[in-house]
Structure formats: structure tokens, C-alpha cells
Design brief:
Order of helices and strands: HEHEHHEHEHEHH
Largest sheet: 5 strands, parallel
Number of strands: 5
Strand order of the largest sheet: 1-2-3-4-5
Oligomer: single chain
Length: about 170
């Protein structure tokens, strides 16, 4: 729950910036469906992530890779319908933004239009900067994801291997 002094009626990217500048803590939890999103939002959580981990948690897949853009839109739509206060950030799933920045923009537009989400999240670093610029220029807020990147599971091996590698790099 936010410990913000100011009571925000609706969390926006602007209010998140204000909170950060004021040194206020920002809370974030993941939800994949209406009921959990209603509980999390009612508890005063500032940001709700609709994560591609729905692939593991909701569908029982071994990795996040199988979830589709259509499935992410479905989960995000359920979450958005439940939320009154929190900012809803929706993961762009694997394969929906990696090939080029135009695809990334198309996928982001679909998420925003079809789910009602408030921002998108991408995994990666400098290799996706063109996509981030294109999405931001279209007026869509972007949240980055650094550190453990589950969409790269087969690049690095298993999650424990990735964690060990990150510990060595001290980049988490």
C-alpha cells in the first residue's frame, strides 16, 4: 500500500513521478484477473502489473514464452475492469515487440485500445531503445524491465543460472 501523504484518486504516470520526487514509496503487485485486481486495488496498491507470468501462474506453462498478445489483452481487460485507483501496466509478451519497432508500436496500441491498460512493459535494454522511442512518441507510457528477464530464459538457461549471472554482475 502506498504510504503517500497525498491521497491520489487515480494513480497516473504524473502522480508516480510526484511520488518519486517526494521520496514516497511506490507499491506494485501483479494481478491477472478481476477478483485479484479488485483486492489489490482496494488495498491501495499504486501499480498493478498484468505480467506475462500469467503464462506460468494461470496456464501452467513452464515459461512465460507461450502467452500470446491476445491472451495478455484478455487478462489485462479483466484487471482494468476491476481497478478504480491503481495504474495498470501490461507486459508485452515475447514475440510481440522483438522483431522491429513498428511491431512493438502495433502491439502496444492493441494493448492500450483493447484492454484499457495505462502503460506497457518491455524486457530489455539498449537493443529495444528504438521501440521504446516509437511507443513513447505515440503517447503510450513505457515501463522498462531490467535484471531477471524471463523472456530470455533459453538464452541464459534456467532461472537459477540467470540469478547467478546477475549476482556476479551485481545488476539486479
Amino acid at each position: 500500500m502506498s504510504v503517500a501523504k497525498k491521497d491520489y484518486k487515480r494513480i497516473t504516470t504524473k502522480s508516480l513521478i510526484e511520488m518519486k520526487l517526494n521520496g514516497e514509496k511506490i507499491s506494485m503487485l501483479t494481478a491477472y484477473d478481476f477478483t485479484m485486481a479488485k483486492i489489490v486495488d482496494s488495498a491501495g496498491v499504486d501499480v498493478i502489473l498484468v505480467g506475462d507470468s500469467a503464462s506460468n501462474v494461470m496456464a501452467g506453462h513452464e515459461t512465460t514464452l507461450p502467452i500470446t498478445l491476445d491472451q495478455m489483452i484478455y487478462h489485462a481487460s479483466s484487471v482494468v475492469r476491476a481497478v478504480e485507483r491503481a495504474l495498470v501496466v501490461v507486459d508485452l509478451p515475447f514475440g510481440s515487440y522483438q522483431s522491429d519497432s513498428k511491431e512493438a508500436l502495433r502491439s502496444s496500441i492493441r494493448i492500450m485500445k483493447e484492454s484499457g491498460g495505462h502503460a506497457v512493459k518491455l524486457e530489455g535494454g539498449s537493443e529495444i531503445k528504438d521501440s521504446i522511442k516509437k511507443i513513447l512518441n505515440a503517447g503510450i507510457p513505457v515501463m522498462g524491465h531490467l535484471g531477471l528477464t524471463p523472456q530470455s530464459i533459453y538464452k541464459f538457461g534456467t532461472y537459477p543460472f540467470v540469478l547467478k549471472k546477475l549476482r556476479k554482475q551485481k545488476s539486479y
